[in-house]
Amino acid sequence: MTQPIAAKPLPSMEALPTMHDLPSDDPLEPGLPDEFHGLQPQLLAETLSLTTYSASEIFCAFDLNLYYDPNNTGWYKRPDWFLVVGVSRLYQGKTTRSSYVTWDEQVNPVIVIEFLSPGTESEDLGPFASKPQAPATPGKPPSKFTVYEQILKIPNYLVFNEPDRRLRYFRLVDGHYEEQAIAPQNLLIWIPEIQLGLGLWQGTFRGIPQPWLRWCDADGNWLLTEAETERLAKEQERQAKQQAERREQQERLAKEQERQAKEQAQQAQARLEAYLRSQGIDPDHLPE
Question: Has residue 184 been placed in a domain?
Answer without folding.
Answer: yes
